[in-house]
Every structure is written in structure tokens, then in C-alpha cells.
Design brief:
Helix content is about 15%, strand content about 30%. The protein is α/β, with parallel strands linked by helices. The chain binds flavin-adenine dinucleotide and FE2/S2 (inorganic) cluster.
């Protein structure tokens, strides 16, 4: 039996207390949908290639000189670190600048940062993954780990929702996982375009299609705030324990390692205490607008 990836956080390539990024080259770009691309990157320096490790759910700070930095989740397999994938929705100055760099372009990278998905806590449990839109990106490393160490978990279910079939990210992989009997995959869309014959409606409707054993289920959620709130609430209604419902949050980041306070969320810092939180850690402030 292979051992499950450790939960000890790997040291960032830049050193924990420094703001200095290291160079990573874009080696390929995969188009996911009209505004989302997966950038495969490789450290220019061989030492960083050899030393870089990350845990599913962690993120990097990507830097474009003269433009700025953005927090981006790592979307590749944590056990294959020669290259690292970042799946990016192009929304603003930094993400547009990364897109402009193209293949062969070099970004600055600091990381990995943050606390990822609690893989050790999933041992022996059924795992329900709920993702919306680009929220599947930080889930993909966890799915790789779950499938690689499949014998250590109960049932594994992925509920994924997006606006239309063309908005799916990792579409070929979703098809591959759908054919894989070791994971139950259900995909729903808001708008059934292009001959879509699957479910239509919000992702939380898919809950009606799965069997949840509340006593031995851990839930991982990542999507827009409304999905995070509704999904967490629905699983709590099914009596899944609050400490077994995990949500990945987004917040404006600056340092990424707990120094600047930009990402404060209640008493927590999203960059170091999160981005993954269990509901019992943040239940008091979760969903409150002024936080
Ligand atoms: C822990 C963490 C992980 C993240 N992982 C990813 C990831 O894997 N992929 C990814 O694409 N993004 C991810 N983000 C979000 C990303 O950091 C922001 O979208 C970032 O602001 C983009 O920088 P920018 O300079 O391109 O856009 P900005 O100039 O900061 O924003 C430009 C405009 O876009 C709007 N905007 C910002 N973010 C979004 C958004 N998410 N959706 C729609 N509009 C938005 C802003 O309100 C603003 O009006 C993550 C954020 C966090 C905190
Ligand atoms: S981003 Fe600086 S403390 Fe979190």
C-alpha cells in the first residue's frame, strides 16, 4: 500500500520570510474555456525543480514585473512536480499579463502557501467533492491523490456545476473520471447548450442523486461564495458534522504568508490558516457580508 501524501507543509521555494519570487517558465498552455487557461510552468533553476513540493489545495503567488501579483491555486498532481499547473481565469491586470506572456514567458513564483485539503482526515471516510466553475482547479490535486491512494478511502463522489457544457474546466478529464468506477462523477450545467443530455440546474441539486452516510462523510467545497454557503448548509442539514465540512475561501492576498493582514477573515488569515477551513472553524463568520 502506498502511503498518503504527508500533511506537513512543504517550505516555500522562496523561503518563508521573503518576498522574492523565483523564475518559472510557461512551457504549455491549455485552453479550458473562453476565459480560462491552464498554464503549465517549470522552474528555470534546477534546484527549485528538485525541491518544490506542494499539498493539494495550496496556492502560489504569481508575479509579472511591472504589473503585480495574484494568488493562484495549484491544479496539477502533487506527486509530479517537475512541472506545475495553474488554471487561471483571465479577469484583470495580472492574469491578463500572464496570458500575454504566452509559452516561453517567465513569471515570478512564490509558494506554495496556505493550508490545503485535509487528506489525512479523509482516510476511511466517504468523500464528497463539490465544485463550481473554476473551483475545480484547487480540487484537482486532491482528486489525483484520492485516486492514487484509492484503497484508503470509502466512496469518492464529485459533484461539479458550471454555466454551460462549454464552461467546464478539465472537460476531457471529467469524461475520463466519469468512466472510472472508483469515483462517482455528476456534472450539471445552468444552460444545456450543444446537445447536453446531463443534469441541468445548480450543483447542490445533485445532492439528491447521491447517497450520503452522514456519520462517515467528509465534504470538500470550492466555488463562488453562494455555492460555498448553500452546499455547506445542505450537508449540515443532512447531519454531516461541521468539522467534516471543508470550504476553500478566496480573499485579497498580498504577502501570502501571514505578515500583511490583507487576507484577514474574522480572527483568521486566509493565507496561513486557510484557504481551506472546516465549517466549525469559521461557522461564526461564514457568509457574513461585512467580514
Ligand atoms: C487562495 C486563492 C486561490 C486562488 N486561485 C485562483 C485560481 O486557481 N485561478 C484563478 O483564476 N484565480 C484564483 N484566485 C483569484 C485570483 O487571485 C484573483 O482573481 C486575482 O484578483 C486576479 O488578479 P488580476 O490582477 O488578474 O485581477 P484584478 O485586477 O485583481 O481584478 C480585476 C477585476 O476582476 C474582478 N475579479 C477579481 N477576481 C475575480 C474572480 N475570481 N472572478 C471574477 N472577477 C474577478 C475584480 O473584482 C476586478 O474588478 C485565487 C485567489 C485566492 C485568494
Ligand atoms: S496575505 Fe498577507 S497576511 Fe495573508
Amino acid at each position: 500500500m502506498t502511503s498518503l501524501i504527508t500533511e506537513t507543509r512543504p517550505a516555500p521555494v522562496c523561503g518563508l520570510d521573503t518576498w522574492v519570487p523565483v523564475a518559472a517558465e510557461i512551457v504549455s498552455i491549455e485552453e479550458e474555456n473562453f476565459n480560462t487557461l491552464t498554464f503549465r510552468m517549470r522552474f528555470v533553476d534546477e534546484i527549485h525543480r528538485d525541491n518544490y513540493r506542494f499539498l493539494p489545495g495550496q496556492f502560489n503567488m504569481l508575479y509579472v514585473p511591472g504589473v503585480g501579483e495574484a494568488a493562484i491555486s495549484i491544479s496539477s498532481d502533487p506527486e509530479e512536480t517537475d512541472t506545475i499547473d495553474h488554471t487561471i481565469r483571465v479577469v484583470g491586470s495580472v492574469t491578463r499579463a500572464i496570458q500575454r506572456l504566452g509559452v516561453g514567458g517567465v513569471v515570478g513564483l512564490r509558494g506554495p502557501f496556505g493550508r490545503g485539503w485535509p487528506l489525512e482526515a479523509l482516510r476511511g471516510q466517504d468523500v464528497v467533492i463539490v465544485a463550481g466553475g473554476i473551483g475545480l482547479a484547487p480540487m484537482r490535486p486532491a482528486i489525483y491523490s484520492l485516486l492514487r491512494h484509492r484503497e484508503q478511502f470509502g466512496r469518492v463522489m464529485l459533484l461539479y456545476g458550471c454555466r454551460s457544457p462549454d464552461d467546464r474546466v478539465f472537460a476531457p478529464q471529467l469524461d475520463q473520471w466519469t468512466d472510472d468506477e472508483s469515483i462517482q462523477v455528476l456534472v450539471t450545467v445552468d444552460n444545456a447548450t450543444g446537445g447536453w443530455v446531463g443534469p441541468v440546474g445548480v450543483v447542490t441539486n445533485l445532492l439528491q442523486r447521491i447517497r450520503v452516510n452522514a456519520q462517515k462523510t467528509v465534504v470538500l467545497v470550492c466555488g463562488p461564495p453562494i455555492l460555498n454557503r448553500v452546499a455547506a448548509w445542505q450537508f449540515l442539514q443532512l447531519h454531516v458534522k461541521p468539522e467534516h465540512v471543508y470550504v476553500s475561501l478566496e480573499r485579497n492576498m498580498n504577502c501570502g504568508f501571514g505578515r500583511c493582514g490583507h487576507c484577514q477573515y474574522g480572527r483568521k488569515f486566509v493565507c496561513t490558516d486557510g484557504p481551506v477551513f472546516s465549517f466549525d472553524e469559521i461557522g461564526g463568520v461564514f457568509g457574513r457580508k461585512e467580514i
